[in-house]
Amino acid sequence: MKIGTRGSQLARWQAEWVRTRLADLGLGADIVAIKTRGDAEVDRPLHELEGKGFFTKEIEDALLDGRIDVAVHSLKDLPTALPPGLVLGVIPARHDPREALVNGKSGSLLDLPPGARVGTSSLRRIAQIRFLRPDLEVLPLRGNVPTRVRKVESREGLDAALLALAGLERLGLGDKASPLDPLDIMPAPGQGALGIEIRRNDTATRRAIQHLHDQASAVAVTAERALLAALGGGCQAPVAAWVATENTGSGMRLYGRVTEHDGAVQLTASAELDPEQPDATGEAVARLLEAEGAASLLAR
Description:
Layout: E1 2-5, H1 9-24, E2 30-33, H2 37-40, H3 57-65, E3 70-74, E4 86-90, E5 99-102, E6 117-119, H4 123-132, E7 137-139, H5 145-153, E8 160-164, H6 165-170, E9 177-179, E10 194-199, H7 203-209, H8 215-231, E11 239-245, E12 252-259, E13 266-272, H9 278-292, H10 294-299
Parallel strand pairs: 1-2, 1-3, 6-7, 6-8
Antiparallel strand pairs: 3-10, 4-10, 5-8, 5-9, 11-12, 12-13
């Protein structure tokens, strides 16, 4: 079996995690690193690039061509509409989906001094920072996870940066960051989860990887991705989603958020998550956001 992945340190870690789990099941696999457009074009923020699937298209092409058998993605990077012939085979147990602040000390965005320089190139993060702390200076920051952490630690024009906690912890850098309250800075739909993509008609591979699937994680990310799809937003849109645990009803609540790019307006809605119909819950929260004016914010 051949596992396709991006070439970054984090992507290789994720692919190696899958390879090890398969080895535990007695299945041998090789890792094939594939360079994507998102890895090649690092001089501009992703939301300024045309198209979709910046970190997935070349890997999906290899999957369709038969050069690889499975593709391992950070699920937040995978568009909600997959190419014909491809499906999500399994979703393994999800890591912590929260955002994290890297600034060399513990704290939150609320603790940063006025005018502090915060690095990120995610439009979703930029918009939420501007809503929560309009006094902060937000600067573009691209590169792999260790590179972004180093730029903060060396004070290369930055006082702090926002990254996904899951990526930091997977690379042993969790001690460099402080998790943020998801209701302050809400994560991307699917953040912290891996998506293992396969060819639709490859039943042998589907059977081989099915033991990696985690149903609770799949329910949560399915609801989040359904919300994103219903709003018509891509992976770079300022759309956030988060499934929280609670002590009532199904025990889960889906939150969705759309923030204007300049932070002037932020819309948040939520609903109890129906584990039997996560897609319907995602669509319901999207309708609540649309009723508040989300479509006009995204159109801007």
